[in-house]
TrEMBL record:
Keyword Cell membrane: yes
GO CC term, one of those recorded: plasma membrane
Stated family: Belongs to the YciB family.
Keywords tagged on the record: Cell inner membrane, Cell membrane, Membrane, Transmembrane, Transmembrane helix
Protein name: Inner membrane-spanning protein YciB
Domain of life (superkingdom): Bacteria
Iron-sulfur found in the keyword field: no
Pfam families given in the database record: IspA
Length: 209
């Protein structure tokens, strides 16, 4: 997983492996959401059955990303572990609440980690994404503060949605709402990226290529 062993792959392949399991989860849920299944003497709702299929699918896509790129980010690893743990608990205990609270914990962990770095005067986001974007330290700190607040807000929002709304509403929120929210967040950070972008003469030899 070291950076020296990393390999580039097609952006379409990378996006497909990252978002494919979520799309398949949604399609499968729509197809079986009103059905129940008797397995081993127990009755399972469609949501639980789809969750049981989603966990190995995420693990497979994560393994393929590792094989193709030679690395995995800490965020990808944490996400895969939490999906496995909380998805597994939902299936084992036949209780959808564990899987629904999983995004809350993911965003709390990410937001909390960024917050700890900020308290130390550091941008842990910079250490993760510096290879993808060349930006001054001040810019990284601004972006990190905003992303920290954004992640904590998503955690709170997920709690509100799954505790007060139907499973249908939560699935739509998880599939589309969270994905669109993350996309819009980064789309609205263009001014920060532009204002604090490093000029060619400011880049290190590695950043300049």
């Amino acid at each position: 997983m070291a950076e020296t062993n990393s390999r580039k792959i097609s952006p379409l392949v990378k996006t497909g492996l990252e978002l494919g399991p979520v799309v398949l989860f949604f399609i499968a849920y729509v197809l079986v959401k009103n059905r129940t299944f008797d397995i081993g003497g127990r009755s399972y709702e469609g949501f639980i059955l789809v969750t049981a299929g989603f966990v190995p699918l995420v693990l497979l896509s994560t393994a393929l990303l590792w094989k193709l790129t030679g690395k995995l980010s800490k965020m990808q690893l944490v996400t895969a572990v939490l999906i496995t743990v909380f998805g597994g608990l939902s299936v084992w205990l036949n209780d959808d609440r564990f899987f629904k609270m999983k995004p809350t914990l993911i965003y709390l962990l990410f937001g909390g980690a960024l917050g700890i770095g900020l308290l130390r005067g550091e941008s842990w986001l910079q250490s993760v994404m510096e290879g993808a974007m060349a930006m001054k330290h001040e810019g990284w700190m601004i972006l990190t503060r905003r992303l920290c607040v954004f992640f904590l807000a998503l955690a709170a929002l997920n709690e509100i949605i799954w505790r007060t709304q139907s499973t249908d509403t939560w699935v739509y929120f998880k599939t589309f709402g969270l994905t669109i929210a993350v996309f819009l967040f980064f789309m609205t950070q263009g001014k920060v990226l532009q204002t604090y972008a490093l000029e060619e003469e400011d880049k290190t030899p590695d950043e300049a290529g």
